[in-house]
Every structure is written in structure tokens, then in C-alpha cells.
Specification:
It catalyses: ATP + H2O = ADP + phosphate + H(+). The protein is of the alpha+beta class. The chain is built from three helices and seven strands. It has one domain. Helix content is 22%, strand content 32%. The strands form three sheets. It has a three-stranded antiparallel β-sheet. Strands 4-5 form a two-stranded antiparallel ribbon. It starts with 7 loop residues before the first strand and ends in a 16-residue tail after the last helix.
Amino acid sequence: MEEEENIPVIILDPGSWKIKIGFAKDDFPNDEIPCVYIEKISDKSKDIKFGIEAVEDYMKIRYNHTKSHMIKENDFGHKEGMSNLVNVKMTFADPRHPLSNN
């Protein structure tokens, strides 16, 4: 049985428009990524991405990085390099979000 302090949880926080990832302990959550990224394709069309797809597209457009540059699997099959993605200042696509410039 897993120790009680190492229970992994993922929280979707609609108030901050972020997915918060970490363990249920004092320093929770460890990482945060935006929930949604919207790219305007034309006047009548938008491409909406959620979760890690939103981060990948945002990073590729804004910083010219791709998934292969930023995320690698370790020996246990877990993805590493997320801290490189989530520590960059993000732009919030939803105009209702208090940090949005839209």
C-alpha cells in the first residue's frame, strides 16, 4: 500500500485557469500548466487546445520550442522536463481571466 503522504493528485482550478499537479503534502502543488490556449485561425475560426497540448502549442508559437526539445521520458516512463515548460510566464487566452491581455 502506498504511503499516505505520496498520494498523487491533479486539480483543475477554474478560478486560476490552471491545472495544478503535485502530491498531497505541504508543498502541493509542485507544477502548474494553463488549462486552455486559444489560437485565432481566422475571423470565424479558433483552434482550442487543452492541457499539455495547450502548453506545447504555446511554447512552439511563442518560444520556437517543440515537444521533443522540452519533454523526455526517463527510465521509468515518466515525462521529465515539465519544469522547463511551466516556469515560463504564460499568456492566458480567456479574456475573463484576470491575467489575460485579451
